[in-house]
Amino acid sequence: MVENEKNKNEKKEIGENDYLNNNCWLIKNLKYAPYKRCQYCELKFRRCYFLQYQIISLFLVIVFFLLFLVIERKFSYLPVITVFTFVIVYGYFFNRSTERIIKSNFSLNKTREALEELTNNLEEKVNEQTKDIKEYNVQLKELLEMKSEFLTVASHQLRTPTSITRGYLSMLVEDKDKLPVKEKELYLENAWQGINRLERIIHDLLSVTELEGGKYSLDTKPVELTELVSGIVEEIRPLAEEKKIKLVYHRPEGLLTVIADENKIREVIKNLVDNAVHYTEEGGVDVFVKAIDSHWLEIKVKDTGIGLSDNDKKHLFGKFMRGEGVLQIHPNGTGLGLYIAKYFVELMKGKVEFESEGKGKGCIFKIVLPRVN
Amino acid sequence: MAAKFMADVKKILLVEDEPDLVTLYQAAFRMNPEYEIKVAGDVESALSIIRTSGFDLILLDIIIPAYKNGIVEYEKREGFGLLEMIRQNPKFKSIKVLALTNLDSLEDRQRSQKLGVLEYVVKADFTPQEVVKKVNNHLK
Question: With an 8 Å Cβ cutoff, are A171 and B28 in contact?
Answer without folding.
Answer: yes
